[in-house]
Amino acid sequence: MAGGFIDRSQETSGSYPLEKLLKSRKPLREEVDFAKEGRLPPHAVEVEQEVLGCILLDGPSIEEVIKIFGADADKVFYEPKHAIIFRAMCRLYNRRDPIDIVSVSDELKRHEELDKVGGYYAIAELSNKVATAANVGYYAKLVKEKYLYRRLISLATHITSAAYEQSLEVFDLIEHAAQEIFKISQTGIKKDAVPIKDLLKQATKVIEELQSRKSAVTGVPSGFADLDRLTAGFQKSDMIVVAARPSTGKTALALAFARHAAVEAKVPVLFFSLEMAELQLAQRLLCAEAMVDSNLVRTGRISSQEMVHIMARMDRLAQAPIYIDDTPSISIIELSAKARRMKHEHNIGMVIVDYLQLITPVKDGKSNREQEIAQISRSLKSLAKELNIPVIALAQLNRAIEQRGADRKPQLSDLRESGSIEQDADVVMFLSRPELYGVQNFADGLSTKDIIVIDIGKQRNGPIGEVRLKFLKQFGKFESLSSVYTAADFSVQDEQRSAKAAERFEREMTPPMPNTLNPDDAPF
Fold it and tell me: Residues 293, 437: one domain?
């Protein structure tokens, strides 16, 4: 520590992640040198004393303080000696030892820190600051608030300094600022455990709502009846991975999902395209909608009648709430920030990312590629939970599938660069086109021509299975082999299942009748 600065390079929590910023000309600091400006940072030393005093009066109250302070814990205190005392209290708490004047003083003495905080007298004085520990939560929140103000001032100062020095690329600096602001905003977000009885009430309500629905699709519909029979649509808070080798039809299928959700189901969709330009995607959507050969459109060889057809379909597609972002090499921080903003401004109901491995991770200079992909995968799953919407992430499969000979059915182990994708995903769909590998017929004898197979290799809350779609490549369009979309599709199966359930319920709930017959009284 020098000149009131604390070197952040030694910290692991809350550190600045950008490698360039870590290598900038001036080291990053936790606190600004306010003395040079003639003013002190936001703080409340007396309230800090009251927090420590409450803990001395009532040792178990430290649990509420730890919950409010979170991972930052002793960094929250402005006064260094208060941080030392709080660390001693935490050590006692972790050992399940009592926390009082005597035990805290003894703990500080054993670590040769008692004199640093002012001796026994200083500890005793803290206990006299409050008469009751009832307000410990209120005091702790005030202390945390001042700490967050200091973090904001510190961050703003360093961003200002870096901007004046122009030591970073401007967009790196903007990304860093957004990332650190988001970290600070998340510092105070804590979630308590919920009693099971409250969750059961919510679960029962959801079940009743689902039961009353006429449609068997409970999530965002995919547009393909066969697929929705297995998944019941794309569910809220789910991360769905659609994986395939290049040129299999991932983007075309993702656009089909987006088109059906927005045009038919009226669900706003945000589409992040890291591989194709936004205009190319718009053309693909239009060709699929108008059933016009995309190659003819690309070469300008369409007829006047086809042009009329395109214009007629354009009006319908233009009304669809589809938002396309083609920012190249977008970072996971920027992607998440944009999704949050679009959720707030347009109430998006689904996010599609094409594709996962092209997202730029947060660089720390230490992670390998697999760890970077794991970070991106976890972030996308967290985004799905936070916004309570399905997030569909396209992903590349590795080349291992090409070396299997005739059996080239994708497997979970084929997910490229990270097993964490499999772990984080709620649903994993593999796309394959057997005809590309010389397979002319499926095992059931049906032709593989123009057929794409969607193999659900993982579904956390549902069955796995295989779906076949007709791929009209010239239009970039898919057709379901079973196109009827009604709950009646499930009626016979549901009746059989309901009958079995009723029989089992009656059997379990009806107590057995006592046998009053003597074995010797048998009638025969």
Answer: yes
